[in-house]
Amino acid sequence: MNNKDLLNIAREYGSPIYVYDAETIINQYNRLSTAFHQVASLRLNYAVKALSNVNILKLMNQLGAGLDTVSIQEVKLGLLAGFTAERIIYTPNGVSLKEIEEVAALGAQINIDNLSILEQFGSKYPDIPVCIRINPHVMAGGNTNISVGHIDSKFGISIHQIPHILRIVENTGMNINGIHMHTGSDILDIDVFLYASEILFETAKNFKNLEFIDFGSGFKVPYKPGDIETNIEELGEKLSVRFNEFCKEYGRDLTLAFEPGKFLVSEAGHFLANVNVVKQTTSTVFAQVDSGFNHLIRPMLYGSQHQIENISNPDGKERFYSVVGYICETDTFANNRRINEIREGDILCFRNAGAYCFTMASNYNSRYRPAEILWLDQQAHLIRKRETIDDILRNQTDINIAIEKEKVT
User: Fold this and answer.
1) Residues of the chain with pLDDT > 70: what percent?
2) Are 19 and 2 in contact (CB under 8 A)?
3) Strand extents, DSSP E, 31-107
4) Is 369 within the bounds of a domain?
5) What is the pTM of this model?
6) Whole-number Å distance between alpha carbons of 281 and 240
7) Crossing angle, helix 97-106 and helix 72-80, to 10 degrees?
8) What's the domain range around 325?
9) What is the mean pLDDT of residues 372-381?
10) Orn/DAP/Arg decarboxylase 2 C-terminal domain spans which residues (predicted)?
11) Does the pLDDT at position 60 exceed 50?
12) Domain finish residue from 232, 265, 298
C-alpha cells in the first residue's frame, strides 16, 4: 500500500488508527518458509502476543501457520479463529497450575518452563505430552527487557538443571515430546543463535520421544532505510543443515519450529496520528499528535525507534522536530528527528507499527484505544472499531455514593 491509501484511510476512519498490510505479512511468512525449505518438517507458530486481532489470526491460519500463545485467552482466540488445538503451543510464565490444566483440557500443546509446575503436572497428567522450555544462558536481544535467555532471566529451566528435569520425568513417567528455547528479540548475530541451538541439540539427546524442537524467534527487522536486520536466508541455510544432521543422529525426522511474531507483522503495520499543535519553544519545535504512550508505548518502554514520516507534506523542507503525545506525562515518540515540514492538521505515519503496538495499548487518561484496519486485496477492512465512552464504562459498576455532610471537611 502507498501513502495515498493511508491518507484516504485517515480521512475516512479518523485518527489515530492502526493499518496493517496483509501482503507484507504474506511475503514475510513466505520468506521465512523459503529460508528453511531444506527441512522436511517446518512449523511456524505465529506469536499471538505481537498482534492478536482475530482477523490477523485468521490470516495466519490461511497461510498454514500454527500459534504460539502465552495465556489461556490467546489459546481461546486461536480456537475462535479456526485453529485446531494441536496447532497451538502454550508457553506461559508464572501462571497457576489451574490455568495450565484448563489449557490442557482444550487440547493445546503444553510447554512448561519451571521445575515445580513440571513435577506437579507430570504427576497428575503423565499421559499428556509436554514440551520443556530450556534457558540456554545465552544473552541475545536488543534490549534488556526483551532478552530472555540469559542466566538471570525468569524464563525457562536452566540447562544446569537438566538432571532435575530427568529425575522428574523418570519419577512421573511423563512424555516429553518437545524441547524449546527463546533467547530474546532483535537478534542480529546468527552465530550466537547457532551457538544456543547447539545447546538445545545437546539437551534434546536426553529425551527419546521428541516430535519437535522449537528454536523460538526474535529475528530483527529493519526500522529505517538501510537498517540492519537478521539475515534469515543465511540462518536458514546454516541451521537447516545442522538440524538435518541432528535428525540423522537422533534416528528420525523431527519438526523444526519457530515462533515468529515481530518478523511477520512489524513491517506490515502503520500507525497514523494527526498533528494537533506545532509548538515552538526556545530550543525545540514540538509536533504534538492526537496520541501518546497509551497507544504506542514501545519508544518509551524499549527506546525503540519508529520511522516517522509526514505523509501529508512529503515534499516539504526537512526540519527537526520532537514528536510528542497528548498524555499528561512525558510521552516522547522522537527527539530532534528530521522530518518534512510539519503543519497543524498533517498526518504523521509511524512505520513498523504492527508488532507490540496495539496489543500494548491502554486506556490511560481515559483515552479510547484506536481503530484497526486490515488492507487486503487493495481494500480497507475495519477489523476493530474505535472505542467510545461506553467501552470505558462497560465493566465499571455504578453504586450509590452518599457522604454525610458532617464528614466532609
Assistant:
1) 95
2) no
3) 42-47, 66-69, 88-90
4) yes
5) 0.93
6) 56
7) 20
8) 269-385
9) 98
10) 18-354
11) yes
12) 265
Query: What backbone torsions phi and psi does residue 167 show, to the nearest 5 degrees?
Result: -65, -45
Q: Kindly tell me if the per-residue pLDDT of 408 is higher than 80.
A: no
- How many structural domains comprise the chain? 2
pLDDT tens digit sequence for 262-311: 999 999 999 999 999 999 999 999 999 999 999 999 999 988 889 999 99
Residues sharing a CB contact under 8 Å with residue 399, sequence separation 6 or more, in sequence order: none
Q: What percent of the chain has pLDDT over 90?
A: 84
Q: Which of 191, 208, 195 is nearest to 159 (CA)?
A: 195
**How many Å apart are CA 48 and CA 75, to the nearest integer?**
9
215 Cβ contact list (under 8 Å, min separation 6):
181, 193, 197, 200, 239, 256, 257, 258
At position 257, the amino acid (one-letter code) is A
333 vs 315: CA distance, rounded Å: 22
Could you write out the DSSP letters of every residue in 114-138? SHHHHHHHHHH-TTS-EEEEEE---
- Single residue among 265, 299, 324 that ends a domain in this structure: 265
> Where residue 370 falls among pLDDT bands split at 50, 70, 90?
very high
Residue 1's SS3 state is: coil
Known binding residues for substrate: 298, 302, 329, 356
Q: Residue 139: what pLDDT?
A: 57
Q: How many CB atoms lie within 10 A of CB 362?
A: 12
275 φ, ψ to 5°? -85, 110
Could you tell me which residues are annotated as the binding site? 218, 298, 302, 329, 356
Q: Are residues 100 and 139 in the same domain?
A: yes
Residue 406 lies in a domain: no
Residue 409 lies in a domain: no
List binding-site positions for pyridoxal 5'-phosphate.
218, 356
Residue 141 — left, alpha, or beta (φ > 0 → left; ψ -120 to 50 → alpha)? left
Helix (H) or strand (E) holding 6, with range, is helix 3-13
Residue 340 is placed in which grid cell? 518534512
Task: Give the bridge partners for 319, in sequence order.
Answer: 339
Query: How many angstroms separate the CA atoms of 67 and 88, rounded?
Result: 5
Residue of 131, 328, 349, 357 with catalytic role: 328
- My answer on whether 247 and 284 are in the same domain is no
Same domain, residue pair 218 and 276: no
Give the C-alpha distances (Å, rounded to integers) separating 112 from 73, 94, 107, 129, 182: 17, 10, 15, 11, 13
Residue 131 annotated as catalytic:
no
What CATH number did the domain enclosing 56 receive? 3.20.20.10
